[in-house]
């Protein structure tokens, strides 16, 4: 994943901040990138490689390198990347090669610290540059390693070296979480508070000043607020927790549902029982039923008896199902599923053709994809729900792995977590398009799920996933049962 991030950032820098010449090239080549045939893509790749052999211009080489990645020619791009690093040892590419091939292979904090020292000595930080987040990835890694080893002072020292305000919470929060695990709440709280303050800074920017960085900084805001509120609750500071959450809801009302779990605790502590119950209702409607006993308690207190309780929950259950049906309706499609034939972890071939007559659930995932991993308990529960249904098959398509030993890594992950999944490796390129299965299916991000009916047609395409086990079970049931029925056209 680190390589993907580095390449993406380099391409962004090349296109966003580079010369107009590179921008013009990108626009010239983009039709081939997006809609070209394999022959056209291969021809363009060969042209880029041919030019790369003769040019002495660093920016042209970096452009060729980045575009080769986009065309799916990873091996050629990797080779060219090494050439650039040798020709231009002080270049951004050389720095990226060092970070990827040297720094990230260090296993302990001291070794990482030594590698980081070498990095900034040979590629000093330019405060005016647009790509200093590359350094922050490294600094955050050093800080986390020191925190893991119990060296709080060095961890905090490195966190103070971070460059990009929009990203630094990504360094603060893992260290803060480790400090909390070690029982050091005093050191953890300021880090989480800084993460909250940084997010609020970007949320409060005028609309015309908000960009992708601002959006990224605000993305983790609900999580930071909830983590800090939970600490305040544990310390008996319910008033502070409630004030924190209500300010957060006022700032980011579109994220209100993500605060509900912490919000109801503060409301209950403040004896605002009706509002507390309303927050639990929001959680319930998302398919999370863990608070049903608390809801029963609040309902009984507010109503003076359990009269009407069954009807109350029945109404909520109907709302949950309606919400899911409305949600999945937006994901409806109807088109033939591209054929595939992939190997499973036992080396056996599994193909779409051999599975015709079954409803298929395809789940594209990778070991580095945290949203994918967080959805797996729910997907396991959904698969268990259909274990006796011979007309339904779940397939977990492992894709976009970058480690050379990815098969061993995947097998170890599945075994460690005891997931009873049929895992297929998405590493077979189509002879005509040169695409792996994810590309043929139009996957742009993972997790991505496809529901295929018995006739081999894609009926639903989902991106992202809830970590909520109950919600995933209900959602999968609606998707699968609908896919079992003939398409209405």
Task: Give structural notes.
The structure is a single chain. By secondary structure, this protein is an alpha+beta fold. Among the domains are: 2-101, no CATH class; 332-484, Glutaredoxin. Helices cover 60% and strands 8% of the residues. It has 22 helices and eight strands. It has helices spanning 2-16, 20-35, 38-54, 58-70, 74-87, 92-101, 109-122, 133-148, 152-159, 169-181, 185-203, 212-219, 221-234, 238-251, 260-269, 273-285, 292-303, 309-329, 370-385, 406-417, 437-440, 469-484; strands at residues 332-336, 341-344, 349-351, 359-365, 392-398, 423-425, 448-452, 457-463. Strands 1-8-7-4-5-6-2-3 form an eight-stranded mixed β-sheet. β5, α20 (406-417) and β6 form a beta-alpha-beta unit. The longest helix has 21 residues, at 309-329. It is globular. The model is unreliable at 1-19 (pLDDT under 50). Residues 331-481 form the Thioredoxin domain. InterPro entries: AhpC/TSA, Thioredoxin-like_sf, Thioredoxin_domain, Thioredoxin_ResA/DsbE_sf, TPR-like_helical_dom_sf, TPR_rpt. It holds the Pfam family AhpC-TSA. TPR repeats lie at residues 222-255. Keywords: TPR repeat.
């Amino acid at each position: 994943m680190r390589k993907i991030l580095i390449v993406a950032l380099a391409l962004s820098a090349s296109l966003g901040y580079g010369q107009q010449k590179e921008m013009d090239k990108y626009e010239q080549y983009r039709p081939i990138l997006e809609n070209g045939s394999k022959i056209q893509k291969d021809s363009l790749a060969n042209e880029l490689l041919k030019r790369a052999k003769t040019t002495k211009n660093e920016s042209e080489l970096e452009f060729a390198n980045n575009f080769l990645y986009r065309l799916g020619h990873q091996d050629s791009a990797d080779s060219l990347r090494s050439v650039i690093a040798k020709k231009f040892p002080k270049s951004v590419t050389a720095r990226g090669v060092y970070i990827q091939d040297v720094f990230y292979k260090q296993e302990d904090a001291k070794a990482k610290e030594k590698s980081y020292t070498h990095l900034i000595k040979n590629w000093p930080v330019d405060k005016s540059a647009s790509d200093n987040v590359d350094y922050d990835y490294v600094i955050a890694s050093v800080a986390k390693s020191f925190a893991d080893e119990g060296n709080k002072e060095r961890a905090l020292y490195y966190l103070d070296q971070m460059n990009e305000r929009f990203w630094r919470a990504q360094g603060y929060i893992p260290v803060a979480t480790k400090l909390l695990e070690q029982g050091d709440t005093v050191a953890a709280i300021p880090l989480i508070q800084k993460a909250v303050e940084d997010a609020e800074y970007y949320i409060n920017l005028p609309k015309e000043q908000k960009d992708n960085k601002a959006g990224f900084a605000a993305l983790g805001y609900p999580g930071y607020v909830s983590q800090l509120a939970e600490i305040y609750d544990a310390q008996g500071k319910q008033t502070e927790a409630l004030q924190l959450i209500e300010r957060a809801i006022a700032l980011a009302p579109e994220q209100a549902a993500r605060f509900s779990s912490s919000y109801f605790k503060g409301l209950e502590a403040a004896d605002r029982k009706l509002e507390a119950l309303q927050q639990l209702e929001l959680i319930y409607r998302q398919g999370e039923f863990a608070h049903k006993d608390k809801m029963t308690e609040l309902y009984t207190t507010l109503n003076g008896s359990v009269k009407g309780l069954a009807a109350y929950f029945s109404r909520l259950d109907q709302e949950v199902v309606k919400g899911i049906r409305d949600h999945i309706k937006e994901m409806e499609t109807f088109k033939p599923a591209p054929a595939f034939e992939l190997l499973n972890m036992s080396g056996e071939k599994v193909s779409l053709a051999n599975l015709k007559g079954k409803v298929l659930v395809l789940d594209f995932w990778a070991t580095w994809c945290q949203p994918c991993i967080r959805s797996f308990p729910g997907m396991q529960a959904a698969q268990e729900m259909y274990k006796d249904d011979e007309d339904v098959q779940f397939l977990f398509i492992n894709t976009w792995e970058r480690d050379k030993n990815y098969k061993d890594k995947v097998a170890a992950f599945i075994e460690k977590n005891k997931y009873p999944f049929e895992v297929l490796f998405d590493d077979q390129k189509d002879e005509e398009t040169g695409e792996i299965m994810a590309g043929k299916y139009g996957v742009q991000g993972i997790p991505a799920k496809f529901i295929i009916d018995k006739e081999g047609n894609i009926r639903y395409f989902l991106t992202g996933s809830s970590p909520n086990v109950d919600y995933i079970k209900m959602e999968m049931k609606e998707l699968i049962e609908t896919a079992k029925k003939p398409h209405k056209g």
